[in-house]
Amino acid sequence: MLGREIFLMKRKLLTGVFSWFGYIMPFKKRIELIKKAGFDAVSLWWEDEDESNRKDMPKLAREMGLIIDNVHFPYNDCNLLWISEKDVETDIIRKYFLWLEECAENNINLVVMHVENNAPFSPNEKGIENMLKLVDKAKELKLKIALENTRKNEYLDYIFKNINDENLGFCHDTSHDWLSSKGKFDSLKSWGDKLLCTHISDNDGKEDRHFLPAKGVINWDEYVKIFPKNYNGILSLEICATKDEVNSIKPEDFLKIARERIHTIFF
Fold first, then answer.
1. Is residue 235 predicted with pLDDT exceeding 60?
2. Which positions fall inside the Xylose isomerase-like TIM barrel domain (predicted)?
């Protein structure tokens, strides 16, 4: 319980949640409910939705009184960062540069990205070379990149061991870490000093379920015990209601429960 006591002695950290939390409704309605539930911030997925252009989302969220914690880039093609083929390399860097520029134009100062998507090859120098290009671009645009731990963290480890830059940090996903390290939070222990943002959710010990905290098997006392005590970012959830929850709990009540859970963990 010492971890909680330390947090209580520090200033109150803000709380946030990902803009998609499992209920099908327009973006504007979702962020309205997020604000009403008492969250301070929201994280965004950087793709257009049916009724909302991604470039409009930050403005809509801010008008609702929410802070933009971070923007999460799509990761379908992230394996291409490790490919040496010139045309492929040029295309993927151009895509990331475009997204970084769009975020800068919308006063976003933190982006999250994956560095592998079940990659079939080993981490290599080409990946480092390409990541340095993205870090330099981020520095030019005055924003930071947070790399998220996934299920194959040798890629994340390889990058952090080879690049030490204040514009490159860590996004810790509790569910991914619990699954990949079998309950030891290895990624948080290794890279917590680089922590810029969080993806907090629970799971069943088998798959990345995006459960509400305390719905699954994660040991939250252990998490708080090793959580960086100098972290001054936002405590953000990345949760998704199950089918049963969507059918039995109103979205506003689901979000209220979510906020209560994050406060129970830390406060």
1. yes
2. 31-243
